[in-house]
Write a structure and sequence with these properties.
Blueprint lengths: L2 E3 L4 E3 L4 E19 L11 E2 L5 E2 L2 E2 L5 E9 L9 E7 L17 E6 L4 E6 L8 E10 L2 E11 L3 H7 L5 H13 L15 H13 L57 H43 L7 H42 L24 E8 L10 E6 L5 E5 L11 H22 L5 E6 L6 H10 L9 H25 L13 E9 L5 H13 L5 E7 L12 H6 E4 L4 E5 L6 E5 L9 H20 L2
Parallel strand pairs: 1-10, 15-18, 15-19, 16-17, 17-18
Antiparallel strand pairs: 2-12, 3-4, 3-7, 3-8, 3-9, 5-6, 6-7, 8-11, 9-10, 11-12, 13-14, 13-21, 20-21
Helix pairs in contact: 1-2, 3-4, 4-5, 6-7, 6-11, 8-9
Length: about 625
């Protein structure tokens, strides 16, 4: 279980390949130092920072951002390294906060590569400090542990580095800040809170004046300027020209996007991080544009109100001229903001054009040619694609961001088959049919993502109304057993899975995994419940809620196909169940929000091309791999 650390507390680490996730609510610089058994850092070559982000076993982000992921491989560390110290600092000279007391408390989480959190730490009680030693990973008696530090420095990064024993700390701190100032950041600051009208207008005005970006963001160039598009260039694509040759001037030439242009240990991880970077870029670019438009609207209203408030200027040529001038200013601001947005959207569209074809099967659409060469994987991927996300501003450019969800699933799925999931033109029976078909596509995607024998699917269809949609799974023979029918089938399936959750929980708590029954299926389990709550009594509902709450921690996941209105008789009893599940829809619907600025994104469910046999081919390969595995085991 994950440990929530307080300052000075330590916790053992059970894995050596880790991610340290940083969330600060405002752009910060992240770095790390490598020290020996006495805590000494031997020179700047043992410091990872945005200007030199990679060291053996360690990689830090190349930019200042509100959210960071630091990759650590403790087994790859040099033998003389006994301590990895994580540092955070506020970038100076950006017009932003200069002390941690003015921003949200930084939060750090140490996780495994599968996203499982081992320890977390919130750095509290900071005030005038502009740099902080967040936490450290240290080696003790051959094992690694994490310790929460939270030591702040009011004199900034130079003082922090000097305290690490670096004699040239001021020069190194300057190099770090220069690397940040060169525009390596891709993160756009989030919009201000709507409750603070003055702050909203100031930020929107700055966004309009800088072409849609806030004043704290500089364009990707060697010298600071007042604005520019998001930089998608590959950091190692072009070598610098020799000293004797002048650098070519290409002020208006967009950077060439590259698939896999992100941090990570593998191409799969780099593509995953790149897709999330695109998601964030789209959210923040749109936020800047909308803020600029809101400011333009507000200013025009104020100017028109001033004209109307003076009786002497309400009529005549003076009033007409004032109104025309206000509208002209409004159009100029909106056009400038739109120009900046179009520039960013063009880069995002170019990046999507190279990223989409390069995605592996778990991340790819069903029409991607990679599915024609699909073979059952040897290990579970980082994530799977459950659809696409779009914003209205990107529709003209055709920009859709893959919706990638980490594996194993941290929460169940709810395929909403109710009227709220569609529009007035969609028939209720058609919605239910599409919901069942969408559930089958999600189940097939999960089956294809896991190695043979490591994922089992159970289906409960009390009334048998989903027989047609379930045919691909049934015909391929990839289900763990026959589809459960009627109240008896519901009760038997829920009892079996509930027993599995109880047994695994007891084994984990007792540290006695070897004591599990030999016939227990230890693979990840998915329960698809169609047409809930038909066929469920009170006891079955209680078991379903238990599976939704406790199942994901021990590998039992829920996919509910239901119309919430059908379960209205249960009242607030089922509210925790709906909240515990990720709601998806069988038709496009704008109900999902991003974690940065909270836009309402339109979710588009997955779809198999009309007339394509890709679904049956993939399920046939899953069945073949299972047959081969049983044959190898002599079953």
């Amino acid at each position: 279980m994950a440990a929530e650390l307080v300052r000075g507390q330590n916790h053992p680490l059970t894995e050596t390949r880790l991610e340290i996730r940083v969330s600060a609510g405002h752009p910060v610089v992240a770095g790390a130092t490598l020290a020996d058994d006495r805590g000494a850092v031997h020179g700047t070559a043992r410091v990872a920072h945005p200007g030199a982000p990679s060291l053996p076993g360690l990689e830090v982000p190349r930019q200042a951002a509100a959210d960071h992921r630091i990759a650590v491989d403790l087994d790859a560390m040099p033998q003389d390294v006994h301590r990895v110290t994580v540092l955070l600092a506020l970038p100076p000279g950006t017009g932003g906060p200069t002390r941690f007391g003015a921003v949200a408390a930084p939060f750090l989480a140490v996780t495994g590569l599968d996203g499982t959190e081992q320890a977390s730490y919130t750095i509290t009680d900071l005030d005038t400090e502009s740099a902080v030693v967040a936490l450290e990973l240290y080696r003790r008696a051959g094992a690694w542990k994490v310790r929460a530090i939270g030591q702040g420095y009011a004199d900034g990064l130079a003082a922090l580095l000097a305290d690490q024993g670096l004699t040239d700390a001021p020069a190194l701190a300057g190099a770090v800040h220069d690397a940040v100032a060169r525009g390596l950041a891709r993160v756009v600051a989030p919009p201000p809170r709507s409750s603070d009208e003055t702050q909203v207008r100031q930020t929107a005005a700055a966004g309009a004046a800088t072409g849609g970006l806030p004043p704290t963001t500089q364009p990707p160039s060697s010298t600071p300027s007042s604005g520019g598009p998001i930089d998608y260039s590959h950091p190692g694509r072009q070598a610098p020209p020799p000293p004797s040759a002048p650098a070519p001037a290409q002020p208006d030439r967009p950077a060439t996007p590259v698939a896999g242009d992100a941090t990570g240990w593998s191409m799969e991880e780099r593509l995953y991080n790149q897709v999330w970077g695109m998601f964030e870029d789209m959210a923040r670019s749109t936020a800047a544009y909308r803020s600029a438009v809101d400011f333009a609207d507000s200013r025009m209203e104020q100017e028109l109100d001033q004209v109307l408030s003076d009786p002497r200027s309400r009529i005549g040529g003076q009033a007409d001229a004032a109104r025309e001038a206000a509208r002209a200013k409004h159009e100029a601001l909106v056009d400038r903001a739109r120009e900046a947005l179009d520039r960013d959207l063009a880069q995002l569209a170019a990046e999507a054009d190279v990223v989409e074809p390069a995605l592996p099967a778990p991340y790819a659409r069903w029409d991607n040619p990679c599915w024609h060469a699909y073979r059952s994987p040897m290990e579970m991927p980082m994530a799977v694609r459950l659809g696409d996300l779009r914003l209205p501003e990107g529709d003209a450019a055709g920009i859709g961001i893959p919706m990638l969800v980490r594996l194993p699933l941290e929460r169940g799925l709810w395929i909403d088959s109710g009227a709220a999931a569609g529009d007035a033109l969609t028939d209720a029976d058609e919605l239910r049919s599409r919901a069942a078909h969408t559930a089958v596509l999600h189940a097939a995607r999960l089956l294809a993502a896991y190695p043979a024998g490591e994922f089992s699917v159970h289906v409960v269809d009390p009334a048998g109304t989903a027989a047609g949609a379930l045919a691909p799974l049934v015909d391929a023979g990839v289900l763990a057993g026959p589809v459960a029918r009627g109240a008896a089938g519901v009760s038997e399936t829920l009892a079996r899975l509930t027993e599995r959750v109880d047994l695994v929980q007891m084994a984990v708590r007792a540290g006695a995994a070897d004591a599990l029954p030999p016939d227990l299926d230890i693979a990840e389990q998915l329960l698809i419940v169609h047409d809930f709550p038909h066929g469920f009594d009170d006891r079955a509902v209680t078991r379903l809620r238990y599976l939704a709450d406790e199942g994901p921690r021990v590998g039992v996941h829920l996919m509910l196909v239901a119309d919430r209105a059908d379960a209205a008789e249960y009242g607030p009893l089922l509210d925790p169940l709906w909240r515990a599940l990720l709601r998806l829809t069988p038709v496009p619907d704008d109900h999902l929000a991003d974690p940065w600025v909270g836009h309402a994104w339109t979710y588009e469910p997955p779809a198999v091309p009309h007339g394509s046999a890709v679904l049956s081919q993939v399920l046939a390969e899953v069945a073949r791999a299972r047959t081969d595995l049983r044959r190898e085991r002599g079953l």
